[in-house]
């Protein structure tokens, strides 16, 4: 293990120079660079029980009494995009974006989760949405799973039960068959770490299962096999005719060593990065979990009295099957944390504790309306460089990046966030040669933010959740982002540049 970690230190030391200046990059993005915005089905659609839709795990959580959601909010109506999709597409067309990233509700297509009962009304909704997008020159980028698992599958164990792998691939086949002529960019999963650690480890996402150190690893193991199954299905049966691409959206912060004068801190930061993005990307790119994860969890499991590691093992056949199952990698990134090494790791069980590092954010860093979201623009460039060096310079799509506030229309802080983060992204492309194909702002509009309900706002468009019509109003940031899309530049005095 030590040799592997020392190699990681060599890599990360290359990144140790300060990237903290506030000078904005004034060079245009390449002509073929794509700008878009994102939403997710449960967060915006509403119509939770209409037209044959089945119950999802988020429906179940939101209807639990007492409710775990801030202000007892639900996604029952949300932004009502199920009924207002044409209005939404008109807003997207006015914004001028190249693509719209949205997700499909599994329960709207397969109410029971299984493929024996296909809901045509649900399919028609997504067919009409993609048709409307195409008619307005907007590329659909479809997330196949954004957290809203059918409750019927959760009743069987959800992502902890290997049965779900085949069920997901059956679901994927329907999507490819029914929508593949219109959809050329697919994402199998959004933020698998939140699905598994949040949903089955620390009970911060539906289905609110608390099984730290075991549940999240079982979930991840099955999710990775499901991803690989969907990618290989597309590659073998649909790619030739449909000519699309399939990736996955993985979330991570940048983890900065507290001190570059400390080899231990540098090792700790690399370990945390491998436990975060590497947990999912390493099997997909390299074939197996990061070695540092395997080693640390095996040692801790033995110390805890387990007969084998709490981290499941892939067979050699599974390693071969999962390796290489990506056409591009999605990156959801919002913030940065500092990492310290520790000689006294937390002995409690869990994914976060298994990394055996100390993660924190200084109080003086600029904040937002989300406790976890500190504004650290230089982290964007550093995480992109790390992805380039760690995964052989893959094609990358920034699938989420954004800022939360209280919903003000004069959202200058959001503009500042976007401008500085996109400038850092442009630096990574221009100065470091990172292969980024596009940028997706989260979110198109204020929406249901999971356990936070409607208390945190990420949208370019304000939504009046007190009105039955859910009126949308462009914020100052929408006007600013429209100009960025038009000019492909984050400042007014743009300079043309070639990569």
Automatic annotation (TrEMBL):
<dbReference type="GO" id="GO:0005975">
    <property type="term" value="P:carbohydrate metabolic process"/>
</dbReference>
<comment type="subunit">
    <text>Homodimer.</text>
</comment>
<keyword id="KW-0732">Signal</keyword>
<keyword id="KW-0326">Glycosidase</keyword>
<keyword id="KW-0325">Glycoprotein</keyword>
<dbReference type="InterPro" id="IPR033132">
    <property type="entry name" value="GH_1_N_CS"/>
</dbReference>
<dbReference type="InterPro" id="IPR001360">
    <property type="entry name" value="Glyco_hydro_1"/>
</dbReference>
<keyword id="KW-0378">Hydrolase</keyword>
<dbReference type="GO" id="GO:0008422">
    <property type="term" value="F:beta-glucosidase activity"/>
</dbReference>
<dbReference type="InterPro" id="IPR017853">
    <property type="entry name" value="GH"/>
</dbReference>
<feature type="signal peptide">
    <location>
        <begin position="1"/>
        <end position="20"/>
    </location>
</feature>
<comment type="similarity">
    <text>Belongs to the glycosyl hydrolase 1 family.</text>
</comment>
<protein>
    <submittedName>
        <fullName>Putative glycosyl hydrolase</fullName>
    </submittedName>
</protein>
<dbReference type="Pfam" id="PF00232">
    <property type="entry name" value="Glyco_hydro_1"/>
</dbReference>
């Amino acid at each position: 293990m030590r040799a592997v970690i020392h190699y990681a230190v060599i890599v990360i030391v290359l990144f140790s120079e300060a990237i903290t200046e506030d000078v904005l990059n004034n060079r245009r993005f390449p002509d073929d660079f794509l700008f878009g915005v994102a939403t997710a089905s449960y967060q915006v659609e509403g119509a939770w029980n209409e037209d044959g839709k089945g119950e999802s795990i988020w429906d179940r959580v939101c209807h639990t009494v007492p409710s775990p959601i801030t202000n007892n909010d639900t996604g029952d109506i949300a932004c009502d995009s199920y009924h207002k999709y044409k209005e939404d597409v008109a807003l997207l067309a006015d914004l001028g974006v190249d693509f719209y990233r949205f997700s499909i509700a599994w329960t709207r297509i397969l109410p029971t989760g299984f493929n024996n009962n296909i809901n045509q009304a649900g399919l028609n909704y997504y067919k009409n949405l993609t048709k409307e997008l195409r008619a307005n020159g907007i590329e659909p980028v479809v997330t196949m799973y954004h957290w809203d698992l059918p409750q019927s599958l959760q009743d069987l164990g959800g992502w902890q039960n290997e049965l779900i792998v085949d069920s997901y691939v059956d679901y994927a086949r329907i999507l490819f068959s029914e929508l593949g002529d219109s959809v050329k960019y697919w994402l199998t999963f959004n933020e698998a770490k939140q699905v598994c650690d949040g949903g089955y480890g620390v009970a911060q996402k539906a289905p609110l299962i608390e099984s730290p150190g075991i549940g999240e690893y079982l979930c991840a193991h099955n999710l990775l096999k499901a991803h690989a199954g969907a990618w290989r299905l597309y590659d073998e049966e649909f790619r030739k005719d449909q000519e699309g691409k399939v990736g996955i959206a993985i979330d991570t912060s940048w983890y900065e060593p507290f001190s570059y004068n400390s080899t231990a801190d540098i090792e700790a930061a690399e370990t945390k990065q491998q436990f975060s993005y590497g947990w999912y990307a390493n099997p997909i790119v390299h074939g197996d979990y990061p070695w540092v994860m395997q080693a640390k969890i095996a040692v801790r499991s033995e110390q805890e009295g387990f007969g084998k590691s709490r981290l499941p093992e892939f067979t050699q056949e599974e390693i071969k099957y999962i390796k290489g199952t990506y056409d591009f990698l999605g990156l959801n990134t919002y913030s940065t944390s500092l990492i310290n090494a520790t000689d006294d790791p937390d002995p409690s069980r869990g994914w976060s504790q298994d990394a055996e590092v100390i993660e924190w954010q200084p109080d003086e860093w600029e904040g937002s309306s989300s406790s976890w979201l500190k504004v650290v623009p230089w982290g964007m460039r550093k995480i992109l460089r790390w992805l380039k060096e760690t995964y052989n310079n893959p094609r990358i799509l920034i699938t989420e990046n954004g800022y939360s506030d209280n919903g003000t229309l004069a959202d200058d802080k959001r503009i500042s966030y976007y401008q500085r983060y996109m400038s850092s992204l442009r630096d990574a492309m221009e100065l470091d040669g990172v292969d980024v194909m596009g940028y997706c702002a989260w979110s198109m509009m204020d929406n249901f933010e999971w356990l936070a309900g409607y208390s945190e706002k990420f949208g370019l468009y304000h939504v009046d959740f007190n009105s039955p019509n859910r009126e949308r109003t462009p914020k100052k940031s929408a006007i600013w982002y429209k100009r960025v899309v038009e000019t492909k530049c984050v400042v007014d005095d743009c300079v043309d540049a070639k990569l």
